[in-house]
């Protein structure tokens, strides 16, 4: 009876954690989707193209500042909670060093690219926001404790306030630069909110310490993931950068609408994988068999969500574009039916981190992302020139499928993961797997 009560308590803890993450991501969806649509309609394809290009450009370099630490910090906090202050303090220092490294690269790249003055200012504001993203390490601590409620409340309040600020900007006809400034303000307020809620748990930021040994350990574990994260950023965002180079900001704006519509669904995989990841770490330490069963259920659930979204957009894509974005963006309707199917492989990829990190396969995880990036860049160079925006959508779909799914069959150590993923695809037709997803 005692064991059953403990298990019930554990399940309840993860369920409540997931509920708060769902609520937070719901607010993010409203902001990114509905407010984002309003911004896209207000700015028009040209200015929205500049904004989307700048976001993609900065995102390519944000991974340098991240140093591949995200999941590693959560894992280390779960494994060694007694070293909390040293891990958090060290990780934040490393993130700030990463930000300085990022800026030292971005500045000369902008100079040699000879971007327009407006684009430079937008990129500058978005780049500054990365410094405040360092305090996301506090969020990782709460994730490790399965207490995302606290940071979720911070996110809900801040995102809601900034969303209202964006509405104010639209209603009062403010320029493009103000929307970039809104993103900077959002991350500044989030950093302050995270610190307040951390101290509210009777924890002190003055106890944070930089530890050379932990820094070396984190960097050693993360160095391959840095390369992998840079590669992931490349194959997630390079299409928008290359469209701007080969075509124009206008075409980036058209393409970005398809990306935005698909991106809404990615919030779901983030919610689920973030909430389940600590339990996967704990199960792997306790019993590998149970770990594999839980991972299979995670894959099953994500596949069902992804395929339902793909069918919805494939059938009703034209109508969705027409209702939400209007005549100015109707060219996007030709892309969404292609681009949306890439999320099947993005969902598989995100869930795979639970396998790679817990099985010590960081090298292979990074290699697959590097291969995906190289394939995506190569395909974009050829397909954009030959087929325009449709070519970019096909390049994304093909490269995602290779790096997230097919590559797992190539290595003996990841073949088990390939079979788990394949079973999840097959299980879409299995009614039993729909009854009790997790």
Automatic annotation (TrEMBL):
The keyword Transmembrane applies. Keywords: Membrane, Transmembrane, Transmembrane helix. Signal peptide: none annotated. InterPro entries: PolySynth_Transporter. The keyword Transmembrane helix applies. The chain crosses the membrane at residues 21-44, 56-74, 86-112, 118-138, 150-171, 177-197, 218-238, 258-281, 301-326, 338-357, 369-385, 391-411. This is O-antigen/teichoic acid export membrane protein. It comes from Nonlabens dokdonensis.
